[in-house]
Amino acid sequence: MSEIELLTSMQANRAIFVDYVLVQTLMAAVIVYIAYVFRKLPMMVKAAAMVGSVISILLVTFFATGTQTVFYATATTMSEMAGNGSEIATSFMNSVDFPVGEPVTQPGWMSALSLIQLVINLGITVYVYMFATWGDE
After folding, report:
1. CB atoms near residue 126 (< 10 Å)
2. Rg of the Cα trace of the chain?
3. What is the DSSP letter of 98?
4. Tell me, what's the pLDDT at 137?
5. How many whole angstroms separate alpha carbon 58 and alpha carbon 71?
6. How far apart are CA 102 and CA 131, in angstroms?
7. How far apart are the first and last CA of the chain?
8. What is the pLDDT of residues 63-114, one digit of tens each?
9. CB 38 within 8 A of CB 129
């Protein structure tokens, strides 16, 4: 791939990642709303909806993580190109403060925040479907 093709790929990757972040954010609100709507239904129905919500949370998390992995792999390829003398790649790497000629990896704090968000989303989902009292019950 050329540098321009890699930059185009990275741009598309970021657009996809933002979409997953928006989906993940909106999904949390939808899960609470559905749990509220289902509050008076039998426990089996609420449990089935909860399982579906948990699966959705996990899938979106896996897709977002995969998108991040592709981004950092592409950035590493761009870094290698910069290390081999590509002016376009070097200019890009310098503009985003990525290392030239070295692997580009996701910061540890970003991985930690992703895991914390996943645990919170799963915990809240189980709580709102199975244990929450809504005041009108």
Report:
1. 17
2. 20
3. P
4. 60
5. 20
6. 49
7. 60
8. 999 999 999 999 999 999 999 999 999 999 999 999 899 999 999 999 999 9
9. yes
53-71 per-residue burial string, b: 16 or more CB within 10 A, e: under 16: bbebbeebbebbbebbeeb
How far apart, in whole angstroms, are the C-alpha atoms of residue 68 and residue 84?
24
Helix (H, G, I), strand (E, B) or coil at 107: coil
Question: SS3 of 25, please?
Answer: helix
Residue at token pair 């995969």:
66
Name the more confident of 137 and 83.
Answer: 83
State the Cα–Cα distance between residues 36 and 69, nearest whole angstrom.
Answer: 35
Are 77 and 6 contacting, i.e. CB atoms less than 8 angstroms apart? yes
- The pTM of this model reads 0.85
